[in-house]
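Hi all, long-time lurker, first post. I run a small reading group and we've been trying to get comfortable going from sequence to structure in the token notation. Rather than ask abstract questions, I figured I'd post a concrete chain and ask someone more experienced to write out its structure so we can walk through it together at our next meeting. Sequence below, copied exactly:
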Amino acid sequence: MYENELKALKKAGRFRERKLFDDGLEDLASNDYLGLSNNKKQFKKAVKLVKEYETFTSKASMLVNGYHPIHQLFEETIAEQNGFEEGLVVGSGYLANMALIEALVRKGDMLFMDEEYHASGVMAAELLGDKVVKFKHNDVEDLREKLDAHPAKRQIIAVEGVYSMGGDLCKKEIFTLAEAYKAMMIVDEAHSAGVLGLNLLGIFEFYSIKVNERHIKMGTLGKAYGSYGAYILASSHIISFLVNRAKPIIYSTAPSVFDTALAYVNMKYIRKHSESYRRKILERQMIVRKELGIIIQSLILPMEVEENSETQFLQKGLIEQGYLVGAIRQPTVKKPMMRVILNLGVSLNKLRHVLVLIRHNTVQ
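-- Answer (accepted) --
Happy to help. Here is the structure in token form:
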């Protein structure tokens, strides 16, 4: 029934399919920033934690009987670590963004969203009609002009700590501007938590920003935290409002108990070993600077190529060399790219090798 549409995707070099990649490849494609996805000791710790309870699964929504003591333990710990009043565990980052944006933007409010915000937030914003204004990516002055042009009962700014495709950081001046306008901020820390800051807590810690009642942080557990799911951190009254009004929270089965347990033990492990992780992160950033002359502050290195077909050609060639690198095409990005994740589980020598292989075939 959709043969013509599929043909058009193939012709444009935008056809996608699920693949089972060789587990022996050096993984520079996934968002497993700290290499925790294959840490068996941490996995066993999570199993041990879950076995302390009679119930192992979620069973129902959080508001029926799906809320588990492990959910509560995780929420309290991550909120305390990040300096927020309260936390809320959610099924996925996609659901977290949908919950926040759909529920919080009420009558008389305006949402100001960075044009490169994640697709989940963009989809939620489409439900809000004329209550949404997009501002140019990381452009402080454009945001200021639009805040002035659209006064509202509540002005809410949505940004990412580290942008998932470009790897660039949200400018600190945007936080300063939000404070000056007394605007609320939704900060998606999916790619910055576990990567930035003294204790790897993310962009708030990296910029030494004191958390206040207008700040909302959300993040995912399937990246640096080596599990699956998401969380929202905010003031107690915002968390309470979400529990009462956010459809993805009310009408979804509670997040996996085991995945939450795994994220919990990994979160504690990261905090304990943050100094060692920071050193390894810096080493990889310095290799990129030395080999390519590019300064990066995250663990995401985008390398543009000319055509969609070229990304797949390069990916295939790198696989033959033992490396898996992300081949990113439209509509995810405007221009096709190889997205290199500086995974701490990949050795420095192998990282150097793959950068040499890619740089001869890309345009900067």
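A couple of things your group might point at:
The CA atoms of residues 31 and 304 lie 19 Å apart.
The chain is about 40% helix and 15% strand.
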